[in-house]
Amino acid sequence: xxxxxxxxxxxxxxxxxxxxxxxxxxxxxxxxxxxxxxxxxxxxxxxxxxxxxxxxxxxxxxxxxxxxxxxxxxxxxxxxxxxxxxxxxxxxxxxxxxxxxxxxxxxxxxxxxxxxxxxxxxxxxxxxxxxxxxxxxxxxxxxxxxxxxxxxxxxxxxxxxxxxxxxxxxxxxxxxxxxxxxxxxxxxxxxxxxxxxxxxxxxxxxxxxxxxxxxxxxxxxxxxxxxxxxxxxxxxxxxxxxxxxxxxxxxxxxxx
Length: 256
Prior knowledge:
The protein is mainly β. It contains four helices and 14 strands.
């Protein structure tokens, strides 16, 4: 029952939404890994109106800790001709833990087609030695990771990541679950572990149908400003073909 697909399959309907259980294997400290709780919110948003167009943007606020039994409620805020806005809340024993606004939008014909930014390195070779997380941070063991032989900046992470068990997942939910898997870039400036807490997260999908090969996504996180206990970082995701799939921004509190 530790795979993301199992957690989603076990969600049960309630009067106002769905009930889910976050296993200890998905925790980071006293709260759930943000990619997991966001994926549960997205699942509820998709179920709110099954004929939604593709997801194009997610705005997530990590309000408080989430663990164990949680409830997930989704509200359709507005649906127009091209786009729909859905709010999803994840609530646990400590109260509201996550609030997300998802924007679903159909492709629109446009004269503009401007794309840049191929991946800076290829995916791992078949015989690559992969990392599988560390026991001290349980959620990291849900992923397989590979650090490419590319020099990253002093406040930058660059890592290939995939879910170890991704069977039966919706591609967009799989991507959202992976997208937050890097440590905060500012941790490299501290030279070691420190307590951190993601505050807000914005993800914009560049492709309405995200896809990759063998589950691999290349994630980069970089910060140009970290001070007074807060870091603002820019993040990019590429697929195994080197195509940019998502751009992100995140605010992270650093207690150290």
